[in-house]
Design a protein that fits this description.
The structure is a homodimer.
Chain A: H1 23-37, H2 40-43, E1 49-53, E2 56-65, E3 71-72, E4 75-76, H3 77-90, E5 94-106, H4 111-128, E6 132-140, E7 148-158, E8 174-177, H5 183-193, H6 209-218, E9 222-226, H7 232-244, E10 247-251, H8 259-268, E11 282-285, H9 290-298, E12 307-313, E13 320-323, E14 329-331
Parallel strand pairs in A: 5-6, 10-13
Antiparallel strand pairs in A: 1-2, 2-7, 3-4, 5-7, 8-11, 8-12, 9-11, 10-12, 13-14
C-alpha cells in the first residue's frame, strides 16, 4: 500500500490554508507552482537547491517571513528571517555563507519598528557569522500590506560527496529529534491571542548550522535533515516518507514536549506534532550511526535534549505511524488545514 | 563644491515616497537600513553584491516586486520579476546562473492569476536561460496584502578582473544609454489610471544580460552599468556621480524618448528622466572605447536606439547637469518624492 494524502483540486481562489505548510500547501505546490517551473532542482522538494558552479556545490534558498505579531517572546521577524534561511541551508548540509534581506514596508509603519527589526536581523546574522550582503526595500500603501514582510535568501557551500535529501531515508534508519516540539508555534499563538501562562513560553528560534556541523563531523551516515517549521514534525516526516518510499514508526513517549507547551496545546486543541518549530531538526541517520549522531547532537547547546524518536520501516511506504503513550498505534497524517496561519 | 541632496531626517513613520527610488529612498537607506547592516559589500550601494567563494566571484542580488496592476501592457509581475533580477546581476557584469522565486499571496487571489503569473515567470526565466531552482509560498489574510507580491533573488558569475561599480566613473568618460526612456513607467501609469493613447505604450521590460555580454565582448573599458528603474535615469546618474565624486553633463537632444511617451509625460506633468525603465541600461565607458561600445550596443536588438547622451566631468563633483533643447543648462537632481509608487 502506498499511502499518500488524496490530492484535492485547489479550487479557484487562494485560501489561507494554502500557506499552512500542510496538505493544502502541498496541493497548491503540486497543482499550480511545480507544474509551472518543473525542473530537477525544484522537483526534489527540499528546502534548498544544490547547484554546481565550476565544480563548487552551492546551496541556494529563499524564504519569506510574514509572522504576526512582528515581535514575540524569544525573537522577532528579523531574527526569525535569519535563522529560518540559515536553517534551510544547513538542512542541505551546506555551510551558510551569505544572506540577502528584502523588505516590504506598509506605509505608516513606525520607523522605530523598522529600526528594531533591522537591528535584530543584523544581530542574528552577526551572531551566526553569516553577513547580509545585498538587500531591497519596497513600500506599499496603507492597507496593502501588514506592517512589514521580509524575504531572506541565502547561499551556502556543500562539501564534496555530501548528499542530504528527503528521498534518501532507508528502512531501519533511526529518526532523531534535536529537542522539544511546539515552542515557536505556541509562543506566537499565546502572544497573538493574549494568553498568559505561569511560565512564559518562548520561541525556540535559533540558527542550527553549528549543530549540523557537529553532527556531520561525528558521522557522514546522515541521510536527510529537516527543520520542522510550518506543518510541524508530522508534515516534515510525511514528506520524507513519501519522497523516500518508506514508512516510519514513532514512539510518542520518546518525543519531548515541554509541560507548559503540552498544557497550552491541550487547552487550545492543538497537537504538538503539527505545531511549528524554528530551532529544531529531525535527522534520519543510518542505524549503525544513531548512537554517535545522538551523542554529537547532545554535545551541542541546541541539541541537549535530542532523542531517538522512531525508526524508518519497510512496510506501508509513505505512512508515518506512532505508538502512543497508551500503547495504541495511530496514523500521523500531514497537517490538513490551516492550524496556525502566519506562524513564520 | 560637492553637490549632494541635503538629507532630511526620516521621521517616525514610513511614507509611500520611501519606496520611490529617489531621495526619500536614499534617506531611508542611509539613515535606517545601512547603519544597521554596515558591511563593505552593502556599502558599495550597487544593485548586486560581488562576493568570493573559493576563488569564484559570485554576484548575489535580491528584489521584491509589488507592481500594480499585476498585468500591464508588455508584461506582468512574473516576467518583470525575472527581468529585474537578471538585470541587477548583469549590471555587475555577472552572467546570471540561477533564480529563486518567493510569493506572498493574499487570501482570495484568483487561482487563475497565480497560474498566469507563475507561467509568465517561468516563461521569462526559460527565455533568458536562467532557471528558477528554489522557491517559497506564503499566504496572508484578505486585506493584509494586495493580490500577489513576488521576490526573486539571483546568483551570477563574474569573470576574473572585471570590476563594474558606481564608484568607477572618471572625468571624460562617455555616458551611453541603450534606448528610449520612460516606457515602463508610462505603460503602468496608463493602465492604472485607465488612460488611453492612440498608440498603446508597452513596458520595455526585458532581460539585458545578452546586451551586456555583447558590450563586454567589444570592450573591457566599461566603468559602470546601471538599469535606470525606480527613480529613473536621473536618480541612477546622481548615484554614480555622488559615489564616483564626478560631475556629468548631459545633452537633452541626445536622450531618446518616444513621441507618445513624451506626450503622456507632458499631459501628466512627469519628466521622462525620472520615469522607471525595465529594459534599458546606462553605461559609463572610457572615452576611447565609446564608439566601440556604442556599436556593440546597437548590434543587439535591445540596443538598436543606443545613444551617447553625455560626458563625465571633473568640475562640480556629485552634480548632474543637462544642456536643454533650448540651450540652457539645468541641474538634474535626484527624484525628490514619490512620483510613481509601486512601479516595480
Amino acid at each position: 500500500m502506498f499511502h499518500c494524502p488524496v490530492p484535492v483540486p485547489v479550487g479557484d481562489r487562494v485560501l489561507l490554508g494554502h500557506g499552512s505548510g500542510g496538505k493544502l500547501s502541498a496541493d497548491l505546490l503540486r497543482q499550480v507552482i511545480l507544474p509551472a517551473f518543473a525542473n530537477p532542482a525544484l522537483d526534489r522538494l527540499d528546502d534548498q537547491a544544490v547547484v554546481e558552479v565550476r565544480g563548487l556545490r552551492l546551496a541556494f534558498t529563499t524564504d519569506t517571513f510574514v509572522v504576526k505579531p512582528l515581535v514575540f517572546p524569544g525573537g522577532d521577524i528579523g531574527s526569525l528571517a535569519v535563522h529560518g534561511t540559515i536553517n534551510d541551508l544547513a538542512m542541505g548540509g551546506a555551510r551558510p555563507l551569505f544572506l540577502s534581506a528584502a523588505f516590504i514596508l506598509e506605509e505608516g509603519l513606525p520607523m522605530e519598528t523598522l529600526r528594531r527589526v533591522t537591528a535584530s536581523l543584523q544581530g542574528a546574522a552577526a551572531a551566526a557569522g553569516v553577513p547580509v550582503v545585498t538587500g531591497d526595500t519596497k513600500v506599499v500603501e496603507k492597507g496593502s500590506g501588514d506592517g512589514l514582510f521580509v524575504n531572506t535568501s541565502g547561499i551556502g557551500l556543500v562539501e564534496d560527496g555530501l548528499l542530504l535529501s528527503s528521498d534518501q531515508a532507508r528502512p531501519r534508519d533511526a529518526v532523531l529529534l534535536s529537542g522539544t516540539l511546539g515552542d515557536h508555534g505556541i509562543a506566537i499563538l499565546a502572544q497573538r491571542e493574549g494568553l498568559e501562562f505561569e511560565c512564559p513560553i518562548e520561541s525556540d528560534s535559533a540558527a542550527l548550522h553549528g549543530l549540523v556541523a557537529r553532527l556531520l563531523a561525528a558521522t557522514r551516515e546522515v541521510r536527510c535533515l529537516r527543520d520542522p517549521t510550518r506543518g510541524g514534525l508530522a508534515s516534515a516526516l510525511n514528506e520524507i516518507a513519501a519522497r523516500s518510499g518508506v514508512g516510519m514508526l514513532l514512539d510518542e513517549r520518546a518525543i519531548p514536549v515541554r509541560e507548559e507547551v503540552k498544557g497550552a496545546c491541550e487547552m487550545l486543541g492543538l497537537d504538538p506534532l503539527y505545531v511549528a518549530n524554528e530551532g529544531k531538526l529531525v535527522a534520519i541517520v543510518a542505524a549503525g550511526a544513531a548512537e554517535a549522531a545522538l551523542g554529537a547532537l547532545r554535545d551541542h547547546p541546541l541539541g541537549r535534549e535530542a532523542r531517538r524518536i522512531g525508526t524508518v520501516t519497510e512496510g506501508h511506504p509513505g505512512l508515518v505511524a506512532m505508538r502512543t503513550v497508551i500503547g495504541a498505534t495511530r496514523v500521523v497524517d500531514m497537517l490538513a488545514g490551516d492550524q496556525l496561519p502566519r506562524i513564520c
